[in-house]
Design a protein that fits this description.
Helix content of chain A: 40-55%
Structural class of chain A: alpha/beta
Shape of chain A: globular
Strand content of chain B: 5-15%
CATH class of the largest domain in chain B: Alpha Beta
Number of helices of chain A: 17
Distance between the termini of chain A: 42 Å
CATH architecture of the largest domain in chain B: 3-Layer(aba) Sandwich
Largest sheet of chain B: 5 strands, parallel
Strand order of the largest sheet of chain B: 2-1-3-4-5
Distance between the termini of chain B: 38 Å
Oligomer: heterodimer
Helix content of chain B: 55-70%
Number of strands of chain A: 20
CATH topology of the largest domain in chain B: Rossmann fold
Radius of gyration of chain B: 18 Å
Number of helices of chain B: 9
Number of strands of chain B: 5
Number of domains of chain B: 2
C-alpha cells in the first residue's frame, strides 16, 4: 500500500497538445536519423537484434520509431519503490506528487556558504534529518563525497549508509560497476530503490551506465533515466529544442530498459540547466528551467510514464535568492504534476546541501501541499448559513462551532515560519528561520533514529562492502 | 593584396566563419604571406573577441564561434610555418583533456577556447583519454601545462595515475598540472598532486597564467 503523496487535479500546462505532439515527433526523428552513441558492445548487439541500425565501429545506434513506441507502451504508468520498511512504500506516477531532497557534492556551511566534505557521521545525521521530515518521502543521498572513503567506493558506501539511516525508499547511483554490490545490499534488505542512469548530453551513454542499467533492470529494479544538458551548450539554445533532445535521450533509456526487462518501471527526469553565456556557468535557478520542467511533465503525462523534476538555486547561501529560485520552481513543478519534485535541502545546486535548510524546505513543501489540496467547496464549507447567523458587526466567527470544526482543517500551521507579534519576537531572541531550523535539527538528532538494521543484515552489508573493496582493489581503482 | 587577405582572415574570425577563415588562410599561403604574420592576425582577432567577451559585449557562443574559425585557419598556417622553419609565439602550450572514465566534453572545450583566446597554444586531445595517451600528448607538444577535466571526483584515481606517470616519465617537474570540473575542490587537487585547480572555465585562464608565471 503506497503512502502519502499529493494529488493535483488540474495540472497546469503551457503547451498545447499539438505542441507536445511536435516535440514527440521531433524526438522520434532525432532518434531515427541521428540516434545515439552507446558505448557498450553487448548493448549494441541487443539493439541490433531488436531492429536498430547499428554501426559497431562508431557505436552509433539509430532507433526505428516502431521500437521506440513499443518500448514506451511497455512502461508501466506507475510503480512502487521500497525502502527497507514496506510501510514507507510510495507509488511513483500520475497523478501523485511527492517531494524529495536534493543531492549535492558536499555540505554547506549555512553561515559562510563554504563547502565541507562530509564524514560518514555527517552523512548519517543528514539522512536522519531527512528520515524525520514528513514531506521527504523518498531519500536521495544528501551528499556524494565522503571523507576518508576512496571515490570508487562512494556509491556502495552511500548505499550502505542510506540503508542504515532511513527506512524510506532511496535512490541508487551506478558508477564503474558499483551496482553489482549495491544490488546485493538491496536484496538482503528487501528494498527496491530507484536506480539512476546518467545520459551524457547530447545523445550518448557511457559504458558503465549502460552496464548498470541492463543489470539493474534485469534484476527487477526500477530505473530513473536522467539526461542533464546545459541549454545552449550541450542542448540547443531554444527551450523547444532542449525538450526534443531531452525527450529523445529519455527514450534511449526507456528502450534499453524495456529490452532488458519488458514492463520494468522507468521514471524519466527533466534536468536541463540554462548556461549563463557570460560566465560559462550553469544557472540552476533559471526561470527557463521551470518552463521546460512544466512542459516535460505534460509530455510524459501524455505518454503515461512517471516523470521527475528538480529545482535548485545558484546562491551559495540559504538566503533570499535561494528561497526565491527554489521554492518558486518547486511550487510550479508541483502544480504541473511532476511526480517527484526534488528540491529539499539544496543550497548551491548540485554542490552543497544543508540539513538545516531541508527543515525549512520541508515547511515550504507543506505550503505547496496545502495549495495542491485547494479549496473544498461544499454546502458546509460555503458557510452561507453561518454567515447569515453571525450577521453584520458586532457579529464574529471566533466562537461559532463551524469555526472550531473547520479551522484546523483549513489552516496550515507552520513550525519554522515566524508569526509572532514583534514584541514577542524580540523577547524570544529575534530568531530567524535558520536559527529555528538549527534548533529543530538538534532536537531531531537527539530524539529521532530509524530503527536499526537487523544484526544479520548489518553483517551481510559489511561483507558486501568488503567484497566491493576487494573488487576495486583488484582493478587498481582505490 | 596581402593586406586585403589578412583583413579578410581577421574578419572571418570575428564573424565566426570557419570556412572563410580556412579559405583566407589558404590564400595567405598561396600569396606567400609570411605565416607568422598571418598567425599574428588570427591571435589579434581572437584577442579582440576575447576582450569583448571579457567585458560582456560578446557571449560564449560568439567566443566559441570565433575560436572555431581560428582553429580552422591555424593548422594551415602552422604547416606553412613548419616548412619555413619558423616558430610562433604563445604564452605557453597547454594540453587539455577529459580523463579516462568520463565522456563529458563541454567543460574542457570551454577551457580550451578561453585559453586559446588568451594567447595560449592549446591542444585539445578530447574526452575519455587514457593516462598513457595524455602523457604522450604532453611529451609530443612539449606542454607547459596539462589541464585535466572531470565532471565527478570518481575519476580521481585516474587523474592521480596521470600525475604519477608524468613523474615516472621524468617530466613532472618541468610542467604544471591543473584540474577542473564541477566537483573539483582544492582538497581534491592536492590529493592527486596537481599544482592548481579552478571550478570555472573563466577561472582556468587566470590559473594557467599564474602557474607559468606570466601574471
Amino acid at each position: 500500500m503506497a503512502v502519502g503523496g499529493h494529488f493535483v487535479n488540474q495540472p497546469i500546462e503551457i503547451l498545447t497538445r499539438q505542441e507536445v505532439k511536435r516535440i514527440y515527433e521531433g524526438a522520434i526523428e532525432v532518434l531515427e536519423t541521428t540516434g545515439a552513441t552507446i558505448e557498450h558492445g553487448g548493448a549494441l548487439e541487443i539493439l541490433d537484434g531488436a531492429g536498430c541500425s547499428v554501426d559497431h565501429k562508431t557505436k552509433r545506434v539509430r532507433f526505428p520509431s516502431y521500437l521506440i513506441e513499443e518500448c514506451l507502451r511497455k512502461c508501466p504508468g506507475s510503480f512502487s519503490v521500497r525502502g527497507r520498511n514496506p510501510a514507507y512504500d510510495i507509488r511513483l506516477g500520475d497523478p501523485r506528487v511527492y517531494f524529495t531532497n536534493r543531492t549535492a557534492m558536499s555540505l554547506a556551511d549555512v553561515d559562510t556558504g563554504d563547502q565541507r566534505v562530509q564524514t560518514r557521521q555527517d552523512f548519517m545525521d543528514a539522512v536522519r534529518v531527512l528520515d524525520a521530515l514528513d514531506e521527504v518521502q523518498f531519500v536521495f543521498p544528501p551528499c556524494f563525497e565522503l571523507r576518508d572513503v576512496p571515490p570508487a567506493l562512494y556509491y556502495n558506501t552511500l548505499a550502505a549508509l542510506l540503508l542504515r539511516s532511513t527506512e524510506k525508499p532511496t535512490w541508487a547511483g551506478m558508477l564503474q560497476g558499483s551496482e553489482i554490490f549495491s544490488m546485493k545490499m538491496w536484496q538482503v534488505t528487501g528494498s527496491r530503490p530507484l536506480v539512476h542512469v546518467m545520459v551524457t548530453d547530447p545523445l550518448a551513454m557511457a559504458e558503465d551506465q549502460v552496464d548498470g542499467l541492463i543489470r539493474s533492470a534485469e534484476a527487477g529494479f526500477p530505473i530513473l533515466v536522467l539526461p542533464g544538458p546545459s541549454i545552449g551548450a550541450t542542448a540547443p539554445a531554444t527551450l523547444a529544442g532542449t525538450l526534443v533532445l531531452t525527450c529523445a535521450e529519455n527514450m534511449i533509456g526507456i528502450v534499453l530498459a524495456q529490452i532488458a526487462k519488458p514492463g520494468i518501471g522507468v521514471m524519466v527526469g527533466q534536468y536541463d540547466h540554462p548556461m549563463d553565456m557570460r560566465l560559462g556557468t550553469i544557472c540552476s535557478g533559471g526561470v527557463e528551467r521551470i518552463l521546460t520542467s512544466v512542459a516535460s511533465s505534460h509530455f510524459w503525462r501524455e505518454l503515461g510514464i512517471p516523470h521527475k523534476t528538480a529545482a535548485s538555486s545558484d546562491s551559495k547561501l540559504p538566503d533570499y535568492q535561494c528561497a526565491m529560485e527554489k521554492v518558486m520552481s518547486a511550487t510550479v513543478h508541483a502544480l504541473a504534476g511532476s511526480n517527484l519534485v526534488m528540491f529539499i535541502g539544496s543550497v548551491y545546486d548540485e554542490l552543497t546541501f544543508s540539513p538545516e535548510l531541508a527543515i525549512i524546505d520541508n515547511e515550504a513543501a507543506h505550503m505547496v501541499a496545502r495549495f495542491l489540496e485547494g479549496i473544498k467547496v461544499t454546502e458546509e464549507t460555503l458557510a452561507v448559513g453561518v454567515i447569515n447567523e453571525v450577521g453584520p458587526v458586532p457579529g464574529h466567527y471566533l466562537s461559532t462551532p463551524h469555526t472550531r470544526k473547520w479551522v484546523r482543517e483549513e489552516l496550515f500551521v507552520p513550525s519554522i515560519i515566524d508569526r509572532l507579534a514583534p514584541a514577542e519576537w524580540i523577547k524570544t531572541g529575534r530568531k530567524n528561520a535558520m536559527q529555528k531550523a538549527k534548533e529543530r535539527m538538534e532536537e531531531i538528532l537527539a530524539t529521532h533514529e530509524a530503527s536499526p538494521l537487523p544484526e544479520d543484515q548489518e553483517k551481510a552489508i559489511d561483507e558486501i562492502l568488503k567484497e566491493a573493496r576487494a573488487y576495486y582493489e583488484h582493478r587498481d581503482m582505490l | 593584396m596581402s593586406a586585403e587577405i589578412l583583413g579578410n582572415l581577421k574578419r572571418a574570425v570575428i564573424e565566426y566563419d570557419p570556412e572563410g577563415a580556412a579559405s583566407w588562410a589558404r590564400q595567405a599561403v598561396e600569396g606567400k604571406i609570411e605565416p607568422l604574420k598571418a598567425i599574428d592576425v588570427l591571435t589579434d582577432a581572437i584577442r579582440q573577441v576575447g576582450d569583448d567577451f571579457g567585458s560582456g559585449v560578446l557571449w560564449l557562443p560568439e567566443l566559441v564561434g570565433a575560436a572555431d574559425a581560428m582553429q580552422a585557419a591555424l593548422p594551415i598556417l602552422e604547416e606553412e610555418l613548419k616548412k619555413t622553419g619558423g616558430t610562433k609565439k604563445s604564452l605557453g602550450t597547454v594540453v587539455v583533456a577529459t580523463v579516462y572514465g568520463d565522456i563529458h566534453t563541454i567543460g574542457k572545450t570551454l577551457v580550451a577556447t578561453l585559453l586559446t583566446a588568451s594567447g595560449f597554444e592549446v591542444h585539445d586531445v578530447g574526452a575519455n583519454v587514457a593516462a598513457e595517451e595524455l602523457v604522450e600528448a604532453v611529451k609530443k607538444y612539449k606542454a607547459d601545462i596539462l589541464a585535466m577535466s572531470a565532471l565527478m571526483t570518481v575519476t580521481a584515481r585516474e587523474q592521480k595515475k596521470v600525475v604519477d606517470m608524468l613523474k615516472e616519465a621524468g617530466i613532472r617537474e618541468e610542467m604544471k598540472v591543473m584540474v577542473g570540473g564541477g566537483a573539483v575542490t582544492e582538497a581534491f587537487a592536492e590529493s592527486i598532486g596537481a599544482d592548481g585547480y579552478d571550478p570555472t572555465a573563466a577561472g582556468a585562464v587566470g590559473l594557467a597564467k599564474k602557474l607559468i608565471g606570466v601574471e
